[in-house]
Amino acid sequence: MENGFTSLTQNDCHIARMARDRRFDGRFYVAVKTTGIFCRPICPANLPKEENVEYFLDKAQALQAGYRPCLRCRPDSAPSSWAWKGVEATFQRAVNLIEQGALTHSSLTDLSERLGISDRYLRKLFTQHIGMSPKQYAICYQLMFAKQLLHTTKLTITDIALASGFNSVRRFNDAFKQTLKLAPSQIRKDTNLDNRVNHVDLAFRGPLDWQHMLDFYQLRSIEGLEQVTPESYQRYIRIEDCRGWFAISNPKPGVMRVEFKLDDMTKLRTLVNQVRRMFDLDSDVLQIESQLSEIEPDLIMRSGIRIPGVWSPWEAGVRAILGQQVSIKAAIGQLNLLTQTLQPNGVTHFPTPQEISQADLAFLKMPQSRKETLSRFADYMVEHSDDPVDNWLDLKGIGPWTVNYARLRGKSEPNCFLDSDLVVKKACQKFTHLTTETVSPWGSYATFHCWSHA
């Protein structure tokens, strides 16, 4: 394939599509020149001849080339691509920010400043890696997200336009027709919405050990904020001034259905992106487990273990501070006391930096030095919430363990090997080939697999 940053060759794509190999779903797309349609490699339609197809790593590239999405296999519902893994970090971050809506209400200049680069260099990165401008990529992403909502929710077309980042229904309709060669009403007309609650289906690749996720969350759940049952997880959330809720029950193979409620539908993209990160839906688990098994063949005792995240780095930081040098049970006891004391009329969200910064924390039953650390951390996050997590090390009372925990659960970084953890240390005595160097870049997964042997 034209893009040098992927290991997929044209022959790889040909073999995968001919076999309709689900391991490649979302990793590339098949565009059919004779029909003008692009599909997932698992599409059940008749297989076109090789001379009549071309391959793209990303949905946006296929749209930009003039192809429209297949209504049968629905590329909008494919797992997220790993196409940008290993590409320049600045470009990866730009893609992530755009998918979170960075260009919806801000300019390209604003995005460039957040990235610490010039507008010109940002445009150059997108042209180099994906063959289009940042704004063109944003529009393509918004349209595919909107298409998914048209299929799977009972939201009005107006709400979908706002949720996908368009300022008006007219602008949304025009962009939809121009790029997807369809009217939104055509998709909605063919969708049965009877008795449907608002939900969105999030695709993922490979196995997902849901029981492991639930067990992990159950042990660390916050009363009133989170609820974990034998089959489901749900919690209240806050996105800026928007309050909401989401619930997930027994994901089917390859699909996690998320029911949701939001005060402000313009925050739906943020919710979706956060849930994808929180439940680690974009990881290629089989690839990760294969590489870890090469290091230690008996390490993988349970297939499908993913990183169980929390809602934000801020929340992960608070959890880590309260968990310093105490048991999980003791830490969650203090966390429950914190949330319930700051919200005496009922817990509706995780406490904000402002709320903790302004609070007298004398009610917490822990050393004064730890209370002061929590206050300093809250003061810092009021002004510097977007700063890199590693900057927290400058704060008194915060060390590498706290930062690594926040990177692991608050940012879902794949390479946090907690080799100073007691359980991991014990596992490393059995699995002697496990080191920070050998498990890279999958240290986080090695950590959770070590814990699974406890």
Automatic annotation (TrEMBL):
Alphabetical GO biological process terms: base-excision repair, AP site formation; DNA alkylation repair; methylation
Keyword Cytoplasm tagged: no
Protein name per UniProt: DNA-3-methyladenine glycosylase 2 family protein
Record's keyword terms, sorted: Activator, DNA damage, DNA repair, DNA-binding, Metal-binding, Methyltransferase, Transcription, Transcription regulation, Transferase, Zinc
Coiled-coil annotated residue ranges, if any: none
GO molecular function (one): DNA-binding transcription factor activity
GO cellular component, one term: cytoplasm
HTH araC/xylS-type domain sequence ranges: 92-190
Organism ancestry: Bacteria, Pseudomonadati, Pseudomonadota, Gammaproteobacteria, Vibrionales
Cofactor: Zn(2+)
Annotated InterPro entries: Ada-like_dom_sf, Ada_DNA_repair_Zn-bd, AlkA_N, AlkA_N_sf, Alkylbase_DNA_Glycosylase/TA, DNA_glycosylase, Homeodomain-like_sf, HTH_AraC
Family annotation (Pfam families): Ada_Zn_binding, AlkA_N, HTH_18
PROSITE patterns per UniProt: HTH_ARAC_FAMILY_1, HTH_ARAC_FAMILY_2
